[in-house]
Specification:
single chain, nine-stranded mixed sheet, Heterokaryon incompatibility protein-domain-containing protein, 31% helix, 2 domains, HET, elongated
């Protein structure tokens, strides 16, 4: 069993639609900096009665055959390289951070627990204070893509079609265009669970390397890019899709 204790649902209080008491674990990412090893603690709790806020991580596992060790409850614990990279990016030098991460918070050796927790993932992401989407380390040019996203989101109502086109389809725009292509080719976009994890969230933040931006601004930017037919410039299979999130929904 290692660091994992048995999860047991609490008795629900009341009979309303949200009166559930799902047992789950959160992970406390201990403060650290630089190349210090990642160290975490498990925090058993009950979804629906959590007295503190947690952030849910949405990410691509990466190559599951290549694993690295972190410390979980003081014991060596293996995770994928991509998850370790995400934890280094999310770790604070001063304060611990409370997260929910499927590969750490669910006992992957207990199939019955895995099957049960997978059915409840919608609730984990729905009631998280924030869903953090990790798109990887990015490249030296990733900031060009993020600058474009923020520009399109901020000025969405005042941008002409011609101006938006100039941001993407001129010679000077090639670094930005390539950076955006690279960003949109992250393995995260091809995951089965993207819609569930993203669409039910009350708040979303995207992280790529040391850059962070909101899910709302990303949705606005993607909508604009689809409108100017940016998809026509992408290889088949890499077309942009506007993925809605809770904060992006419009009134009817």
């Amino acid at each position: 069993m290692g660091p994992f204790s048995t999860l047991k649902d609490a008795e629900p209080e009341g009979s309303g639609p949200q009166e559930f008491a799902y047992a789950l674990r959160c992970v406390q990412l201990l403060a650290g900096h630089g190349s210090q090893p990642i160290s975490c603690k498990l925090k058993p709790s009950t979804l629906g009665r959590i007295p503190y806020q947690y952030e849910a991580l949405s990410y691509a596992w990466g190559d599951t055959t290549k694993r690295v060790e972190i410390l979980l409850e003081g014991q060596p614990f293996k995770i994928t390289q991509n998850l370790e990279t995400a934890l280094h990016r999310l770790r604070s030098a001063k304060e611990d951070r409370l997260l929910w991460i499927d590969a750490v918070c669910i006992n992957q050796q207990d199939r019955s627990e895995v099957n049960l927790q997978v059915k409840r993932m919608w609730a984990v992401y729905r009631y998280a204070s924030k869903v953090i989407v990790f798109l990887g380390e990015g490249t030296a040019n990733t900031h060009h893509a993020i600058d474009l996203i923020q520009t399109l989101a901020k000025e969405k109502k005042g941008l002409s079609h011609r101006y938006v086109t100039s941001l993407l389809f001129t010679k000077d725009a090639q670094p930005t265009k390539q950076a955006l292509r690279t960003l949109m080719s992250s393995p995260w976009w091809s995951r089965t669970w993207v819609i569930q994890e993203f669409s039910v969230a009350t708040e979303v933040a995207f992280v790529c390397g040391n850059l962070e931006w909101s899910g709302e601004s990303f949705s606005e930017a993607l909508r604009t890019l689809v409108d100017v037919r940016f998809n026509a410039s992408l290889p088949r299979g890499q077309e942009l899709k506007v993925v809605p999130c809770e904060v992006d929904k419009r009134d009817p």
